[in-house]
Amino acid sequence: MNQKQPPLILHVIHRLAVGGLENGLVNLINHTPPERYRHAIVCLSDFTDFRERIEARDVPVIALHKRQGKDPGIHAVLWKVLRNLQPTIVHTRNLPAMEYAVSAMLAGVPRRVHGEHGRDIYDLDGLNPRYNLLRKAMRPFIHRHVAVSKDLERWLIRTVGVPPGRVAQIYNGVDAGRFRPRSGARRNLGPAGFCTEETLVLGTVGRMEAVKDPLTLVRAFLRLLEVEPTARERARLVMIGDGALKKDAEGLLASAGAAHLAWLPGERNDVPEIMRSLDLFVLPSLREGISNTILEAMATGLPVVATGVGGNAELVEDRKTGTLVPAADPSAMAAAIRGYVLDRERLIGHGKAGRRRVDERFSIGSMVDSYLALYDAVLQHREYRNPNAAAEIGTTAANSPIA
After folding, report:
1. Helix H or strand E encompassing 272
2. Domain total for the chain?
3. What DSSP assignment string belongs to 25-56?
4. In this structure, are residues 25 and 105 in contact, taking their beta carbons and an 8 Å threshold?
5. Is 378 in contact with 113 (CB distance < 8 Å)?
6. For the chain, which has fewer Cβ within 10 Å, the N-terminal or C-terminal residue?
7. Domain shared by 323 and 256, yes or no
8. Are residues 371 and 329 in the same domain?
9. pLDDT tens per residue across span 13-38
10. Cα dihedral sign, 173-174-177-182
11. What tens digit of pLDDT does each residue of 239-265 get?
């Protein structure tokens, strides 16, 4: 007799590539006990070699190759995939995937979950009437919404109008073994002679796109060179990632005669090793849900200078594990960076405090336990209780049984 298989969760996302949402999804899949749940991924567009981060070989990753804009035929294609795989739960993520909860219902999928992971440049504050009308229209088809930050949880309840009992707030977790503090000498970083053991290397990891605002970091670095006489000798900038603004960033550095003080290699597959060669992490985003790169930097023992937007303030304890600054303010960012350039004891202390904070509150184990408890509650039509509530920051919105 064949043993009954665990329930299948089908995750519907826009694209599987380098990104915070995708990183969190892969971490969840890799750390789910195989006897509890199986996973599959449907990419509305396509996927990259990022799929190789999935450790299990039996996780289907299916690309639908959706055309840009409206492509009504994709609903029929997805319906066929759903009927073939017969998942127990469909978990859509972010606005581009949300409407496919209807396809899941029509294909007979018993339960539907939708996750909100952050916002993009086209709707920084989540107030676009057309998008929110769609979100409200989708509410009857979704049994539970998941927010990765308190900020997004409040927005779902107050702006989108999701009943508090149908919102679960679950923080991302970070692999604190893969991202760990440097021990020993700094590894070679950048071109020959780029930095030494005495250099303070500040860096960031992320898409070079408008919502991540990389040009503010470049301008902050150039401002630092102006106001701190020792910076040209002591400070170096590293920016890992690719995107539409990479050439603009390189142009700004070149026009200021500072191109040799910065390293912008594009996307890399050795981010943990690069992180361990940094001394300070900087995140200049205009908006964030919950930043995986902040968590990875904290796990690596780096102090963090970040904009005080979205969920960033839920991760960075200002003046304890890093410094929060206003968005799109190069001068304030430069001043925060300069504080660490001039005070190495503070830099080291904030980095150690950040690592402790990750160990206590943002482990992958805690994230996985929370998602498994959510999926269990959704399947059993019962109240969701966060198994890590005692360790969470604040309290989640009250939850009631799911219809």
Report:
1. helix 271-275
2. 2
3. HHHHHHHS-TTT-EEEEEESS-B-GGGGG---
4. no
5. yes
6. N
7. yes
8. no
9. 999 998 889 999 999 999 999 999 99
10. negative
11. 999 999 999 999 999 999 999 999 999
